[in-house]
């Protein structure tokens, strides 16, 4: 899976590609909103890394996913061919998953 990361300040981002050895998409759900987001995001180049940096792009690994309402969600993993992660909003820490597509639509 190709991962395009728009979060330029993420410690794992190298030229728009994710270099984490593990990628997880989280899911926030409330009465008025459903948001899938990159749970691996670590803001800022000096952010402490909880996972090792890989010298290669995150392309051949499965992406763990908690967005069970997404059309690409299967048994805790993302099955999309490409994952698009947006940068966080001004001052925010959640990087939305633009690949998220509500199941059944």
Helix-residue proportion: under 10%
The sequence of SSEs as H and E is EEEEEEEEE
Shape: globular
Residue ranges: pLDDT <50 for 5 or more in a row? Answer: none
Based on secondary structure, the structural category is mainly beta
Strand content: 25-35%
> How does the major sheet shape up?
5 strands, mixed
Give a written overview of the molecule.
The chain is built from no helices and nine strands. The protein has 105 residues and is mainly β. It has one domain (2-85). The strands form three sheets. It has a five-stranded mixed β-sheet, with no helix packed on it.
Write the layout of secondary structure elements.
Blueprint: E1 2-5, E2 13-14, E3 17-18, E4 24-29, E5 34-38, E6 63-65, E7 73-74, E8 77-78, E9 82-85
Parallel strand pairs: 1-9, 4-6
Antiparallel strand pairs: 2-3, 4-5, 6-8, 7-8
Short description:
It contains no helices and nine strands. With 105 residues, the chain is mostly beta strands.
Index terms:
single chain, mainly beta
């Amino acid at each position: 899976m190709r991962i395009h990361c728009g979060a330029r300040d993420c410690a794992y981002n190298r030229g728009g590609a994710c270099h984490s050895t593990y990628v997880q998409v989280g899911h926030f759900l409330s009465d008025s909103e459903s948001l899938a987001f990159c749970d691996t995001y670590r803001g800022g180049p000096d952010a402490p890394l909880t996972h090792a940096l890989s010298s290669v792009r995150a392309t051949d690994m499965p992406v763990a996913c908690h967005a069970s309402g997404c059309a690409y969600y299967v048994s805790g993993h993302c099955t999309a061919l490409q994952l698009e992660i947006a940068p966080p909003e001004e001052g925010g820490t959640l990087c939305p998953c633009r690949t998220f597509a509500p199941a059944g639509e």
